[in-house]
Fold:
Amino acid sequence: EIEKNFLEAIAFAKYSIFDADRYIDSCVSLLNIVGIDRVDISEEYIADAIEALARNRYHHIALELITRYIDKAIYIGVNVRDIYRAILKGFLGLDASPSYVSIEPRIPIELTNTSITLYIANRRIYIDVIGWGNSVIEIYLDSNLFPQTTIPINQLINVKRIFIVMDKEPLTPFTITVLSRGIPLNNSTITI
Structure:
């Protein structure tokens, strides 16, 4: 029965249960015995389980579940909307409210230099994560350094791009070119 109940058990960890770290560690230990390939990939709990695994340092299992679920979606035609939410919340640590956006990524090495386009407060904003790891070193709103990971919505009114620099260096150099009115400025290329 573990094959059918594993996702449900992991999903509980998302809801801040007492001693969630130990709980999820126990679930993953059991999963390692049973084998992830035997887990029943059901729609009901998949997104919450992926989010919980990604937030609790089990990126590799979360990525494998995403791959298996998307493969299933291609062949059977199941909904993947919640998987996108799990990726945004689990890996990017994105949390939004009417007054702020909070970004606390946990980016595995497999997702180094991730980029995503979101609509926040009815504005298209590009988010570029530079590097990988579990800690944010710096956040830039366009080219302006922002001192925290929680950004008030009113600070995003004219922002087109958010750069998040993580604690682990990218595997390949990431280059940023500073533009003025869409034209690159001389000597303005920054390589990280």
